Amino acid sequence: MNVLGIETTCDETAASIVMPGEDGRGRILSNEVLSQIAEHAAYGGVVPEIAARAHVEVLDRLVARALDTAGMTLSQVDGIAVAAGPGLIGGVLIGLVTAKTLSLVARKPLIAVNHLEAHALTARLTDGIGFPYLLLLASGGHTQLVAVKGVGDYVRLGTTVDDAIGEAFDKVAKLLGLGYPGGPEVERMAETGNPERFALPRPMLGRREPNFSLSGLKTALRIEAERLAPLSGADVADLCASFQAAVVDVVVDRVRVALREFGSIAGHPTALVAAGGVAANGAIRRALTTQANEAGLTFVAPPLSLCGDNGAMIAWAGIERLRLGLVDDLTAPARARWPFAEAAAVA
Ligand code: KG4
Ligand code: ZN
To answer: The Gcp-like domain covers which part of the protein (predicted)?
Structure first.
């Protein structure tokens, strides 16, 4: 079974071919990603109209290249998976219309994949882990703790009440005059900084529900930065390190609470999993590795190339759904918003 995966929900245009491998993992035959970072950098964030145009310009070539690299033609794929949301609607439409056209012309099943579900299932593509597992899904637009019980069976234990973690990293970077996207820049600056120089708040620490709040932390950082301005290189590094340390403390605390709740909702977890762009953060990965080990769990996070948006995760989610007979037709809608996990019932 070979599945083509197409991703256009944000600022990466991506196409990939994946097939099921031995040992329950996936085998990535090609994984083409074209980032639009350069096109958006001048604006300090993703401009939806620019993103949509850039997807149109490159997507068909990228699909051809993904097939080429995998050494196959469209007639040899068994399904066409596409991220049908959530995301910027212009980009989502371009991916979806392209996938529908290919599906119609080549007479292949269409699988409309939820982009967040694809992040959630990436740990099975890379590590072949079984259900259920606890997932920290943290990207530029989403921060959720989810009990992943099966394909299509997701219980949301907690979420953010304001900013997503990636969004907070991006805003902090912008405030400190660092580049876009902010996460990698803040992480790089934090490496040389003193994480103890600024006593920033740890919002939600100790709360009973595993929710997040990032906006107070971001505001506290802004106040410190304004107090110190103009900022030296060392100030920026210390602010980044202090911010990242606060985020790590909050993440570990929230995951601890989610792990406590997990048992009654889904039983014993097979692993602690991180996914989404923020899962690329080394400090967060290290802290979660320690935490998982202490809880007797393995920690699984995708390799850096699969943390950010990519086509392989869409193709893999397509494989998971196709195996269960979950296919879509040409009426599948493009969705700007598309929650993928049901909120946990309040006990
Ligand atoms: O999953 P993703 O590629 O796109 C979305 O669906 O949002 O995530 C992008 C987000 C951005 O906010 C980016 O700043 C953040 O992930 N990010 C990071 C790191 N690398 C990317 N945040 C913290 N540390 C990083 N190393
Ligand atoms: Zn994403």
So the answer is: 28-316
pTM strictly above 0.85: yes
Query: How many CA atoms, within 13 angstroms, populate the side-chain half-sphere of residue 266?
Result: 26
Question: How far away, in angstroms, is 267 Cα from ligand 1 center?
Answer: 30
Ligand 1 close to Cβ of residue 276 (< 6 A)? yes
Same domain for 71 and 165 = no
Q: Is the CB of 277 under 6 A from ligand 1?
A: yes
- Does ligand 1 have an atom closer than 6 angstroms to the CB of 280? yes
Q: Which of 219, 243, 269 is the last residue of a domain?
A: 269
Tokens encoding 94: 């371009």
Whether residues 20 and 107 fall in one domain: yes
pLDDT at 345 over 80: no
Say if CB 332 and CB 80 are below 8 A apart. no
Average pLDDT of the chain to the nearest whole number? 96
Q: In which domain, by residue range, is 39 found?
A: 3-122+309-342
State residue 346's pLDDT score. Answer: 56
Same domain, 145 and 255: yes
Which is nearest to 162 in space by CA: 124, 94, 219, 232? 219
Closest ligand to residue 243's CA: 1
Q: What is the pLDDT of residues 183-205, one digit of tens each?
A: 999 999 999 999 999 999 999 99
Among all bound ligands, the one having the nearest atom to the CA of 168 is 1
